[in-house]
Specification:
The protein is 77% helix and 0% strand. It is built from eight helices and no strands. Helix 2 crosses helix 4.
């Protein structure tokens, strides 16, 4: 006797079962439902006479008291790693031609500005502050719908949570360079003092700032749009 594979109704029941166990992220549920379905079908290969309910609880009992929680955490950890890799992939994807040429152009422009100033750190802080303010204004006022991801009520996704966390990354990305720029400036002054090449200091800071400009655009504008596209393509039925 060969037991038939799981029916669509039974697959739906497995999703409900996962939710009953406190697993609310749908993308995590997909991973666990696949795991449960394979385990149930393996039970049926050995004991075709098992009912669906008996096979399900038999699989669940095989996990032991904390086994199901452990598997859930493993799947969540794997998905978070996957989404982090995806995020860095998009940043690397963004930082290609013509962005590299743009970085060189910005570096050269900033370097020229410092050649005509007496207080490089103050000028760089002003430029950096103006960029951060402009970026925040853009994110809050200009085309917010491009970065908004609305999903239907009652559904939760780990990928959507990751998408929302990018908003908080904007704050850290924008505030971090001010302290780093000051530290980098003092460090380079100490290093370049004895070789008397101030232009090395100025060029290094210009490179740092231009990289920050491009990275900020990638993490705050480009990456959220790409994640939104991925989510819409993978889960179109849950997007408003």
């Amino acid at each position: 006797m060969i037991h038939p594979p799981l029916s669509p109704e039974q697959i739906t029941d497995l999703y409900a079962f996962c939710e009953e166990q406190g697993i609310y992220h749908y993308d995590v549920q997909i991973e666990l439902v696949d795991h449960l379905a394979c385990a149930i079908e393996q039970k049926w290969e050995v004991n075709p006479g098992f009912s669906y309910d008996y096979a399900l609880w038999s699989v669940y009992n095989d996990f032991k008291p904390k086994g199901f929680v452990r598997i859930r955490r493993e799947r969540e950890k794997e998905l978070r790693k996957k989404y982090n890799r995806l995020q860095w992939k998009y940043i690397a994807e963004f930082y290609r031609l013509p962005k590299i040429i743009l970085t060189i152009a910005i570096t050269f422009a900033l370097f020229l500005i410092t050649q005509f100033t007496t207080n490089d750190l103050q000028v760089n802080m002003i430029i950096l502050g103006a960029f951060v303010v402009s970026l925040i204004l853009y994110l809050s006022l200009s085309h917010p719908e491009k970065r908004r991801l609305d999903i239907i009520r009652g559904k939760s996704f780990l990928l959507h949570d990751h998408f929302l966390k990018l908003k908080w990354m904007v704050v850290s990305v924008c505030l971090t360079p001010f302290g780093l720029l000051n530290s980098l400036n003092h460090l380079l002054k100490e290093y370049t003092h004895w070789i008397s090449y101030q232009w090395v200091d100025e060029l290094a800071i210009a490179m740092f700032m231009s990289f920050f400009f491009i990275f900020s655009v990638a993490i705050t504008v480009y990456t959220p749009q790409r994640i939104k596209e991925d989510f819409t393509n993978e889960f179109p039925q849950f997007v408003k």
